[in-house]
Request: fold
Amino acid sequence: MTDDAVHRTAAHVAHDGGAGAEPGGADELDAAPPTAPHAAPLDVAVDRQIEAILMIADEPQSLVSLAAAVGAPVPVVRQAVERLVADFDGLVGTVRRGFELREVGGGWRFYVRADLDAVVEQFVEAERPARLSQAALETLAVVAYKQPITRSQIASIRAVNVDGVVRTLVARGLIEESFTDAETGAINYVTSDLLLQQLGINSLDELPLISPLLEDGAGGFEQNEGIPDGRT
Reply:
């Protein structure tokens, strides 16, 4: 075969992609369609979908509601939840997580594991805003100078509803319940030792006098008759 014949034969094979073409060559790679990514198995997809939904849910989610959310039969969702529980509990060769998937109130929801409550509580306490609102400061001042005092008495002095503010101060540990009035059943509140620590004083006797702070120079709250400086 002449050189011209050899060149013509090689060109023909390269153009037609004949059997003589090298598998995996440049021509073959260019012509091959892109490989579609492998679809995840159905059970894995459902597991991840349920995990994502429960991650942002505020309330426990029933199997029926989860099934409606992911578009899967209830038995499939039940099996997926069981796999997630085993996964988070470290029962399938995985690491035991700091949270658990728990069934409560007819539904499923993420919860912190009981043995980690202390560290979470410490974190939450540290993240709480340090500043109190003006309403909370005013209510705290009323309790400090008028204790023991009920919520209705505080509301009478401030002329506003103080239920939410009182709950906030109790949650912050700045005031606490002292006793319940035997006749009315009203709870009386007093300041806590934490407030003394926050103010840097040893006792309520070190609170500043109210009289110099009043515009008219009156001696404390009008209801505090018999207490010259407005302290209890």
Remarks:
- The two ends are 121 Å apart (CA to CA).
- Residues 9-40, 217-232 have pLDDT under 50 and may be disordered.
- The first helix runs from residue 3 to 16.
